[in-house]
Amino acid sequence: MTTLNLFSSSPPIHPASAWYLADLGEFRGKQELYTRQSPQRLKVLREHALIESALSSNRIEGVAVEPSRVRDVLVAPKPLFRDRDEEEVRGYRDALDWIHRDASGIAVSEENIRRLHAMARGQIWDAGQYKERDGHIIERYADGRERVRFRPVAATRTGEAMASLVADWQRCLDEAWVHPLIALAAFNLDFLCIHPFRDGNGRVSRLLWLLQCHRLGYEVGRYISLERLVEENKARYYETLELSSQGWHEAKHDPWPYINFVLYILKAAYKEFAERVGEIAAPRGSKRELVLAALGRVPAEFAIAELERACPGVSRDMIRTVLREQQAAGSLNCVGRGPAARWVRKR
């Protein structure tokens, strides 16, 4: 029994969820107004979100690309990969491209879920195939200890569980069991509890999150990286996922912690979108602004490599230019020289 099925009897909505839905409804109402702003500004946001999403979603799973290789891997038309990590990050970026381009024609089906997995896993040997062996989600600690965080659906029942999940999603929308965004978050929770693939489930869940948002008319993920916001709140992500998965197999779980996390991320994305474009009449879509926005996310003292990671796809020359401008304006100090140099934000 999936979480979605719990809503077929119309249980009361969690109070926090009701507040999130009200705010998201207001943001969605302004969405068209926001997207009428400067085309150049929106173009820069789209390009930046695409790169951030591919890097962040993979970093959450321990798959990373060196900052110096970001443009070669994610921007070049036909990149030459150095390792599996680069291939998987580029595959995720290609999956994002597909969703952004064709979302209205991509049904939430088992076939398309397997296709997204194949793309995000770089066409590895079992890409696009459900798991063949049982496995547990293990949490490992720095001192070497480990524990079983969750036991997903058995391999022999995975196909049945996925077919049920996809069918419940469509029935939930057709019969209006619950608000579509609640259904989206519940679907995401169920997908992660089923854990249909040997590896790559987290990445596919975030691609599905984006796809379902587009299909429901919430298109903020085109301009603001949902994956980057999840990465910035990774501890809360895992905490709410664990809370909501307890008792899932017996349908005795509480889905609301994870549902509210998903709604929180969507609200944070819309809020950031409004700050960057919605309330600004003049076109300001430049790489310089992306660096300035990243300066607000890095620690008060940072190395240039940290800032480079916070605004992937922006050249180091542009980053250095902005840093010099901020230093001349009295906002930053540079301590040291060369690779060991640190930048300090003034109060």
Order of helices and strands: HHHHHHEEHHHHHHHEHHEE
**Quaternary structure classification:** single chain
Query: What's the pLDDT, averaged over the residues?
Result: 90
Number of domains: 2
What is the CATH superfamily label of the largest domain?
A: Fido-like domain
Euclidean distance between termini CA atoms? 54 Å
Order of strands across the main sheet: 3-5-4
Q: Kindly report the CATH topology of the largest domain.
A: Fic-like fold
The global form is: globular
Rg, rounded, reads: 21 Å
Number of H- or I-type helical stretches: 15
Q: Helicity range of the residues? A: 55-70%
What structural category characterises the helix and strand content? Answer: mainly alpha
Secondary-structure topology with pairs:
Layout: H1 3-6, H2 15-34, H3 39-60, H4 70-74, H5 84-102, H6 110-120, E1 137-140, E2 146-150, H7 155-175, H8 180-194, H9 201-216, H10 226-232, H11 234-245, H12 256-278, H13 287-295, E3 301-302, H14 304-310, H15 316-328, E4 332-335, E5 342-345
Antiparallel strand pairs: 1-2, 3-5, 4-5
What does this structure look like?
The protein is mostly helical. It folds into two domains: 3-278, Fic-like fold (Orthogonal Bundle), CATH 1.10.3290; 287-345, Orthogonal Bundle (Arc Repressor Mutant, subunit A). Helices cover 59% and strands 5% of the residues. It is built from 15 helices and five strands. The protein has helices at 3-6, 15-34, 39-60, 70-74, 84-102, 110-120, 155-175, 180-194, 201-216, 226-232, 234-245, 256-278, 287-295, 304-310, 316-328; strands spanning 137-140, 146-150, 301-302, 332-335, 342-345. The strands form two sheets. A three-stranded antiparallel β-sheet has the order 3-5-4. A two-stranded antiparallel ribbon has the order 1-2. A hairpin with a 6-residue loop joins strand 4 and strand 5. The chain starts with a helix and ends with a strand. Residues 279-285 have low confidence and may be disordered.
